[in-house]
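JOB MANIFEST
job_type = single_chain_structure
chain_count = 1
residues = 501
[input]
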Amino acid sequence: MLRYILVLFLTLCLEASTLHLATSTNPARLNPILATDSSSSEIASFIFSGLVKFDKDSKEIVADLAKKFYFKDSTTLIFELREDVYWHDGEKFSAKDVLFTYDTLLSDKVVSPYSSGFRFVKSVRILDEYTLEVTYTKPYFKALETWMMGILPKHLLENETNLMSASFNKNPIGTGPYRLEQLEFSKNIVLKAFEKYYEGEPKIEKLSFHVIADPMTRFMMLKSGELDVGALEPMAYEKQLGASFFEQFAIYEKISPSYSYLGFNLRLDKFKDPRVREALSLAINRDEIVDILFFKHARVCTGPFLPGTKAYNNSVKTPKQNIQKAKELLQAAGYTEENPLRFEIATSNSSPIRPYAAEILQHQLKAVGVYVTLRVMEWQAFLNMVVMPHKFESILLGWGLAPTPDPYLLWHSESDRKGGFNLVGYHNEELDKLIEESQSIVDRDELALIWQKMFAMIVEDNPYLFLYIPNEISAVDKRIQNIEPALSGIWHNYIEWEKED
């Protein structure tokens, strides 16, 4: 009996120091320069650190692995690195690791969309063990943000012949606040607090990510208290929770820095005609989608940049549904009742909302004589077999929205390449020139005017149909202490969180 009580006590103590979370998919690669899916990016962010990061309100750039940074002139950036940083295997971090990461990103060893962020770097030079000089070919508006990229360990990877398939991607070693302890695909991923983390060892000992593809299962686990932190869908929040849930969980809600869209494969003849894309835009009712799916916990997305930032164009309004004009445009493009437009929308079940959004789009488009079939796939299959090889007619997908956008990544013609983020194959010479012009403008007010012009231009061209920006509704067990909500959300100070018994 005494032994049982002791085992139970030790188990409870362990659980009290473990934060239980959920992720919808297995991470593809826990490597910051190769992490392109949300699960990989989220988990890698706890394992790796960059030279700089945003503050809690996502307004100012502050030091991270760098203790100090400054521009020597308009094209020369100096980083003075912290001298108290260790890799998870106990080796010291130094400037050699930063140079190695940069060289790797620009080498032919990897295919990474993040390489483009370094395209204006002329050289990275080590001045001493903890000081680097970065020289740009010209002034670059995202010179600092680029170095938020997680840094890789040279001593572990310098002799790696194929980083894309390296065992490191499943056994990462970083400098972040947590290190990988356990990786069971489709089951559980456990991170353990790193005792030598330079900002102090996290107070919660372990982060346990339960891999749960089914959104209903995630919801039931949260509702039963098996998860400490979880996202709530609007319908569940409004209709499926009782008083006991709100006694146990605190609710935090904010606009999500993300949007969902319907993207057309512009390499296909049927979508090259701008009349077709405009007709499809006019055929749908975005307000109806938001009302049905979100119960007022979302807003219609009017374009590619984050609302509330300098890049956002307030003058661009939501296209209003116009069935008659949509039919006229389709007829002008050669589509009739006898020869209707048909295409497939592909999406993933990793988001519980998007399959329903696809069904609503299918219904709305039928009203103008467009026939849509749906394909809903598991995330990794969707990513590897449909999205990245561009084997789709249209995709219902989403992007994160950064405080400082980089239109080059999604909208420049050069990003329509293997591993690039211009998934739909959008090419616009005028926009390309604007993007190239904007890259060397560092005055944010001047840059804002160009971003807003890009915003309007992209929306008018309809490479995407911008749909909605959801709110983030997070439920956090009230046993979790020291949470400080900020404009960036609740996670900015997670190393200070504590979990009461």
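[summary]
The CA atoms of residues 390 and 423 lie 7 Å apart.
The two ends are 22 Å apart (CA to CA).
exit_status = 0
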